[in-house]
Write a structure and sequence with these properties.
This protein is of the alpha/beta class. The protein is 32% helix and 20% strand. The strands form two sheets. Strands 1, 4, 5, 6, 7, 8, 9 and 10 form an eight-stranded mixed β-sheet that branches. Strand 7 and strand 8 form a beta hairpin.
């Protein structure tokens, strides 16, 4: 049997990041931009990747395709629309949309969500009691998303509920939630501490 293709992975990098002083994708963690951490994570899980932005010229995506919001200013739902379009063009029936500010996402995220997807349209992690719509695996359905947006919909969580979602409980490991977002200087400092702690761990 031929294994199904890995899902496309699209990194949402269009937010202003005002709480962290702007330019969130390029903020450094461990000497590397947050976007570089996200790209490395995506590359470990798929051979089909892109970066969703509000407009061209804002960031360097390391050669990956840049997907511009068709309707800027609507938040992550615009990134999902770009992700659906990209995945469909690449012949990938599923797409994992992740944030550029989640440097510790599990490297088996796509595989575990894919295994849980079943007949549902969306597989969404739940970590430490919090739903993670910006780390969910979606079956591409451009028509349904276009209708949802045209009706004024903007919530990823609500669109997932409309589509049919399975929630995937994530086990707690370590002191830091692997789905944690870097939204402000304090969170970035905490992430630096966590990264240093990981670097000091002896190899098994």
């Amino acid at each position: 049997m031929i294994a199904p293709p890995a899902p496309a992975i699209v990194i949402a990098a269009g937010g202003e990041g005002q709480r962290i002083g702007g330019g969130k994708p390029l903020r450094l963690l461990g000497g590397q931009p947050l976007l570089a951490h996200a790209i490395a994570n995506a590359a470990a899980q798929s051979d089909c990747m892109a970066v969703a932005v509000r407009e061209q010229g804002r960031i360097d995506a390391g050669g990956l395709p840049l997907l511009c919001d068709a309707v800027p200013g609507r938040g992550p739902i615009s990134a999902l629309a770009s992700a659906f379009s990209f995945a469909a063009a690449q012949g990938r029936p599923e797409v994992l949309l992740i944030g550029c500010d989640q440097p510790f996402l599990p490297r088996d995220l796509a595989a575990r969500l894919g295994a849980a997807l079943g007949a549902n349209k969306v597989a969404m992690p739940v970590s430490r009691g919090k739903y993670q719509p910006l780390a969910a695996l979606w079956r591409v359905d451009e028509a349904a998303l276009a209708d949802y947006i045209a009706a004024g919909g903007a919530s990823l969580w609500r669109f997932a509920a409309v589509q049919g979602v399975v929630h995937v409980a994530w086990p707690e490991t370590g002191a830091l939630d692997p789905f944690a977002n870097i939204n402000d200087p304090d969170a970035l400092a905490e992430a630096e501490t966590h990264l240093s702690r990981l670097a000091r761990k002896p190899a098994r």
